[in-house]
Amino acid sequence: MGLPGIDFPGVGAGLAIMRDGRLLLCRRLKAPEAGHWNIVGGKVDHMEPAVEAARREAEEETGLTIGKVDFLCSTELVSETDRQHWISLIYVTTDIKGEPRLTEPDKLSEIGWYDLDALPSPLSDFARVTVEHLKRQTDHLARSAAS
């Protein structure tokens, strides 16, 4: 059958969790992009809607309770280094309860809130694309409010 992302393109889902204009990022321990800072997320299970996978992964990885989420963007990672290929749907939320904590220390080494203009390095491709979309969304909202 093979492994998603390795033997055939995998489908992933990520969640950009925002609070007070800051983004929650975690440092990955495993490929793809081990050592990079990323939004929470993971593989979409068979017959699981991507939005539910994003919520499930976020709750598993952070211990937060996630409420309403909205679609943000899609992204694709083709990593020659890791020999992995992932297509991911990215969602965004500000509707959270609790304080984030590392609940999967075998997968993530650090967790923290970051301003969109003061991000840790290196950023994963998923996080970089997410931040670009979040900044565009923020700029659009600011322009709309000013008119």
Topology:
Layout (H helix, E strand, L loop, with lengths): L9 E10 L2 E7 L8 E2 L1 E4 L6 H13 L2 E2 L3 E10 L4 E10 L2 E2 L10 E8 L9 H22 L1
Parallel strand pairs: 1-7
Antiparallel strand pairs: 1-2, 1-4, 2-3, 2-9, 5-8, 6-7
GO molecular function: hydrolase activity
Keywords: Hydrolase
Protein name: DNA mismatch repair protein MutT
Q: What does this protein look like?
A:
- By secondary structure, the chain is α+β, with helices and mostly antiparallel strands.
- It has helices spanning 50-62, 125-146; strands at 10-19, 22-28, 37-38, 40-43, 65-66, 70-79, 84-93, 96-97, 108-115.
- It has a single domain (10-146), classed as Nucleoside Triphosphate Pyrophosphohydrolase, CATH 3.90.79.10.
- Strands 1, 2, 3, 4, 6, 7 and 9 form a seven-stranded mixed sheet that branches. Strands 5-8 form a two-stranded antiparallel ribbon.
- The N and C termini lie far apart (55 Å).
- InterPro entries: NUDIX_hydrolase-like_dom_sf, NUDIX_hydrolase_CS, NUDIX_hydrolase_dom.
- Its cofactor is Mg(2+).
- Residues 8-136 form the Nudix hydrolase domain.
Entry summary:
GO terms for molecular function: hydrolase activity. This protein is of the alpha+beta class and 147 residues long.
Q: Rg, please?
A: 15 Å
CATH class: Alpha Beta
Shape: globular
Helix coverage percent: 10-25%
Please work out how many helical segments DSSP would assign. 2
Biggest sheet, in brief?
Answer: 7 strands, mixed
- Structurally, how many domains make up the residues? 1
According to CATH, what is the topology?
Answer: Nucleoside Triphosphate Pyrophosphohydrolase
Mean pLDDT: 93
